[in-house]
């Protein structure tokens, strides 16, 4: 779209400079940008030395076989040793690694010494079951401490794990087990969600009817639900792990040894197995966790409110925080169980200092109202983070004001499963934050915004986000599919990593992420971002949440169709809602962005990771048969939307 229209919304002039006391003691200062740009490789080598290497690398980066990178070549390292043993050996065994809070209110406190004992036992159990270095282990668990233990036990013996989010179906689990040919599955009977036990074992049983190579299932008893049992195959965690020795000598692996495979959906049906390896990944998650959140390991209480089944959980619940000897909070359940203040109760109880979550959660809290967090003492918070989707300025400001008490920097962190760690983000002690902007590539990261031909765009223009140099925690390939790796990420702009995200460089040169390029619409030859229109809609006092799609239109190519949820507390008597909102969008962005249709709905279809499924909304907007709805949190949402629309004029 024309950049004038676009910048109306993006010309956000609120600025939030770092609090002086934070800036004064910040882990990272502006000098890091200069240091890293003077010698990017030396910068990453310095960060790699934060870790324990049994043997140091010979070459920091081997890019001779691009786009297949090798980092810290020749180095030998063990991820679990770095996350656990190292801290215990340094006398930090009594330090709390996790304050775990179960949804029903049960709690556990796990120290680094506890973690070491449990990881050693689990590693011994896996070895007893015949798991060897390089074998894959699938993990299908709720948010309980054993999930972390299972991952670290795999890492300790060099068996790459593939954690499958507990909300995925049996067939999704089957596809992932088959794709990486896992031989062992670690699961639980179930976990607690929305006040009730939610089963997991039945999905494992169903998946395994088509996975003949799986020898054993280790089952953690969490809920005590009745489950089916296959003798010889199924083993209780408390039988097979508890009796093991708590001593285990770790082996050190090549820096490029596979650490894990995490599946993520691509544009086609087949999920992509993103492969992460050890040395570079651990270096970058550890450094970014320390830098972006200004982590003070001795005093901070850190909480990533995400599921371990997603990359955010891998990098910022498990590997980054543990590598930094952090005390974290881990919560099993949903934010509204047993009441809508649960998160704030947890922040208050554990005096959480750093909170990291997704904009979709923030907008939900906005919808529930600011009087809920206001009932709790949130004054311990000092840094807030956002991840997973573009954060609209209203949500950013609400988060900063009502959760952060107007004091806390908000770091809007851009990254992907593929990137392994945060790449574009403000630094809380350095950057004056702009609501809605991810701002700038971190030190050591080379990113650019390019046009269709791959040329860098000038300030004030939009384009595609690309990465122009390899980074330590980048994916190494797609599991078993090097060609798809090349095609998906390295072919659109030769020599550059194509992230699939639209971006804009504003007049100051700062970066705004505009959503997936597949969500960018082209209306009468103007490029419009779904995110920007959603952001404009949400900035209207009547609107709680909005999702925008581009529907095929015979005259304009695509037309903007908006689905909105109204705020419960607003009186809409006598208001022409659609007209009011269309005018509002025209005012915020420009007449070109006016939605052709505005549809008021009760709910939006979301994936279990909280992403709005625009594809389904596009189907509705274009009157098509609905596509696959199996990854929806609640597939009846679509029926509701249809019914509801039938009643609208
Ligand atoms: C989106 C999650 C805007 C983006 C860590 C990316 C964001 C996709 C942001 C990756 C952000 C993530 N601002 N968009 N701060 N963070 N995204 O693999 O479209 O689940 O490509 O990784 O989420 O999602 P994934």
From TrEMBL:
CoA binds at residues 193-196, 312, 524. Catalyzes the conversion of acetate into acetyl-CoA (AcCoA), an essential intermediate at the junction of anabolic and catabolic pathways. AcsA undergoes a two-step reaction. In the first half reaction, AcsA combines acetate with ATP to form acetyl-adenylate (AcAMP) intermediate. In the second half reaction, it can then transfer the acetyl group from AcAMP to the sulfhydryl group of CoA, forming the product AcCoA. Residues 89-471 form the AMP-dependent synthetase/ligase domain. SUPFAM superfamilies: Acetyl-CoA synthetase-like (SSF56801). It comes from Thermasporomyces composti. Its cofactor is Mg(2+). GO terms for molecular function: acetate-CoA ligase activity; AMP binding; ATP binding; metal ion binding. GO terms for biological process: acetyl-CoA biosynthetic process from acetate. InterPro entries: Ac_CoA_lig, ACAS_N, AMP-bd_C, AMP-bd_C_sf, AMP-binding_CS, AMP-dep_synth/lig_dom, ANL_N_sf. It comes from the Bacteria. The keyword Metal-binding applies. CDD domains: ACS. Residues 31-83 form the Acetyl-coenzyme A synthetase N-terminal domain. Pfam families: ACAS_N, AMP-binding, AMP-binding_C. Keywords: Acetylation, ATP-binding, Ligase, Magnesium, Metal-binding, Nucleotide-binding. It catalyses: acetate + ATP + CoA = acetyl-CoA + AMP + diphosphate. The modification N6-acetyllysine is found at residue 611. Acetylated. Deacetylation by the SIR2-homolog deacetylase activates the enzyme. Residues 532-611 form the AMP-binding enzyme C-terminal domain. This is Acetyl-coenzyme A synthetase. Its EC number is 6.2.1.1.
């Amino acid at each position: 779209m024309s950049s004038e229209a676009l910048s109306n919304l993006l010309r956000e002039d609120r600025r939030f400079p770092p609090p002086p006391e934070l800036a004064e003691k910040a882990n990272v200062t502006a000098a890091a940008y200069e240091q890293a740009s003077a010698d990017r490789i030396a910068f990453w080598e310095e960060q790699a030395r934060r870790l324990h290497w049994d043997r140091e690398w010979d070459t920091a980066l081997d890019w001779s076989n691009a786009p297949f990178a090798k980092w810290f070549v020749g180095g030998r390292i063990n991820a679990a040793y770095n996350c656990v043993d190292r801290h215990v050996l340094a006398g930090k065994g009594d330090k709390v690694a996790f304050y775990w809070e179960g949804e029903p209110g049960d709690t556990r406190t796990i120290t680094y010494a506890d973690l070491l004992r449990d990881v050693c036992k689990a590693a011994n159990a896996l070895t007893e079951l015949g798991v060897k270095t390089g074998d894959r282990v699938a993990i299908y668990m709720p948010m309980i401490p054993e999930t972390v233990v299972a991952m670290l036990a795999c890492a300790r013996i060099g068996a790459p794990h593939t954690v499958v989010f507990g909300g995925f179906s049996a067939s999704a689990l089957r596809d992932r087990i088959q794709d990486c040919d896992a031989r062992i599955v670690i699961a639980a009977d179930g976990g607690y969600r929305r006040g009730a036990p939610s089963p997991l074992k039945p999905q494992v049983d169903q998946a395994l009817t088509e996975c003949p190579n799986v020898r054993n299932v280790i089952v953690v008893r969490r809920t005590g639900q009745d489950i089916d049992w296959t003798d010889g195959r199924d083993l209780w965690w408390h039988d097979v792990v508890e009796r093991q020795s708590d001593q285990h000598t770790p082996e050190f692996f090549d820096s490029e040894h596979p650490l894990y495979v995490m599946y993520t959906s691509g544009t086609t049906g087949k999920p992509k197995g993103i492969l992460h390896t050890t040395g570079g990944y651990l270096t970058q998650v550890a450094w970014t966790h320390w830098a972006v959140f200004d982590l003070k390991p001795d005093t901070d209480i850190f909480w990533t409110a995400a599921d371990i089944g997603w990359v955010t959980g891998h990098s910022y619940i498990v590997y980054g925080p543990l590598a930094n000897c952090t005390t974290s909070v881990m919560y099993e359940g949903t934010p509204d169980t047993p009441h809508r203040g649960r998160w704030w109760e947890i922040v208050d109880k554990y005096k959480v200092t750093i909170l990291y979550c997704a904009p979709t959660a923030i907008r939900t809290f906005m919808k529930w109202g600011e009087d809920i967090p206001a009932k709790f003492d949130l004054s311990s918070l000092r840094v807030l983070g956002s991840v997973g989707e573009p954060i609209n300025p209203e949500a950013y400001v609400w988060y900063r004001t009502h959760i952060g008490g107007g004091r806390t920097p908000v770091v809007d962190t851009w990254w992907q499963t593929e990137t392994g760690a945060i790449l574009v983000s403000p630094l809380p002690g350095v950057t004056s934050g702009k609501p809605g902007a991810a701002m700038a590539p971190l030190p050591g990261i080379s990113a650019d915004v390019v046009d269709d031909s791959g040329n860098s765009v000038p300030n004030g223009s939009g384009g595609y986000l690309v990465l122009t140099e390899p980074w330590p925690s980048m994916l190494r390939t797609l599991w078993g599919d090097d060609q798809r790796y090349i095609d998906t990420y390295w072919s659109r702009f030769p020599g550059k990593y194509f992230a699939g995200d639209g971006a804009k460089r504003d007049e100051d040169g700062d970066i705004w992420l505009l959503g997936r390029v597949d969500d960018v619409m082209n209306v009468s030859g103007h490029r419009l971002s779904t995110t920007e229109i959603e952001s404009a809609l949400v900035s209207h006092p009547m609107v709680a949440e909005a999702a925008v799609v581009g529907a095929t239109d015979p005259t304009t190519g695509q037309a903007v169709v908006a689905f909105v949820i109204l705020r419960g507390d607003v009186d809409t008597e006598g208001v022409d809602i659609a007209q009011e909102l269309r005018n509002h969008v025209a005012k915020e962005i420009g007449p070109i962005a006016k939605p052709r249709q505005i549809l008021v709905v009760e709910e939006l279809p979301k994936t279990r990771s909280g992403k709005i499924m625009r594809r389904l909304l596009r189907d509705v907007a274009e009157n098509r048969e609905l596509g696959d709805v199996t990854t929806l949190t609640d597939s009846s949402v679509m029926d509701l939307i249809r019914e509801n629309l039938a009643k609208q004029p």
